[in-house]
Amino acid sequence: MVMCVRQPDNGIATHSITINSVTKRFKLLSMPFIRGVAMLFETMYYGVQSMMYSANVVLEEEDDEFTLFDYVLLVVMVLAMNGMFIAIPFILTNYLNLTGVLFNVVESIVRLGMFAGYLYVISLWGEVARVLQYHGAEHKAINAFEAGSDMEVDSVAKFSRLNPRCGTSFLFLTVLTSMALFALIPRTTFVARLAYRLALFPVIAGVSYEVLKLSDKYRNSSIMQLIIKPGLAFQKLTTKEPTPDMIEVAVKALDEVRKIREANTE
């Protein structure tokens, strides 16, 4: 994994680490529907580690150690947030006295509304807006690379800032998956139905990951195009148009990955 960060002196700091993924070390965790959950927590770990590294570079401080306690605390916070996005729409929809498919549809609409509102609000924060610009730069670099384009900044800038494999698309797929799975839950008590929804989170994540993989593999399929489009639309909230210097950082990171891969195959 390569991390590139714009330094205060306008240079680009580059740091790479070798990842021994849990899906490679443990065969069980590489199996379909299980690998998605494993990848979710692993990606979150390395993502936060990267954010801490970038903050240290910008602030010109020594590296803070990302401890196991910090990671456990992060997981608890993320699970709590996910629990809120699952529980609150269910509780609100329950007051409408709806049943069957209509209940699940309305619940999902409320959940999507909360998700969109949350993304919009945090995107207004200046520092988060810069992160979203770098997110857009990352997508442009990947799209340009996969299209076989030259990796000059001006060329990369012409590509879309949206990518069907983005985590935003994954989150949207979890909403669609939850709608289908929750429809299978029998009509029981309020507490039991809420407990089912919270307990099924790993299943939803696992299924959504497989759908995301399939949507990329069969991206030209008309059915997959319908599944992909809403996630791409939500990416307009989680990405912003980057500046040329941001694209330069993304291109640098991708180029470093390419060099490492070529060196390892020699």
Describe, in plain words, how this protein is organized in 3D:
It is a single chain. With 266 residues, the protein is mainly alpha-helical. It has two domains: 1-66, no CATH class; 84-253, no CATH class. It is 70% helix and 4% strand. It is built from eleven helices and two strands. It has helices spanning 22-25, 35-59, 68-94, 100-123, 126-146, 153-156, 167-182, 190-199, 201-217, 222-238, 244-265; strands spanning 2-6, 12-16. Strands 1-2 form a two-stranded antiparallel ribbon. The longest helix has 27 residues, at 68-94. The chain is globular, with a radius of gyration of 20 Å. The two termini are 19 Å apart. The model has no long low-confidence stretch (mean pLDDT 86).
Compact summary:
Strand 1 (2-6) and strand 2 (12-16) form a beta hairpin. The chain is built from eleven helices and two strands; from the N terminus they run E-E-H-H-H-H-H-H-H-H-H-H-H. The chain has two domains: 1-66, no CATH class; 84-253, no CATH class.
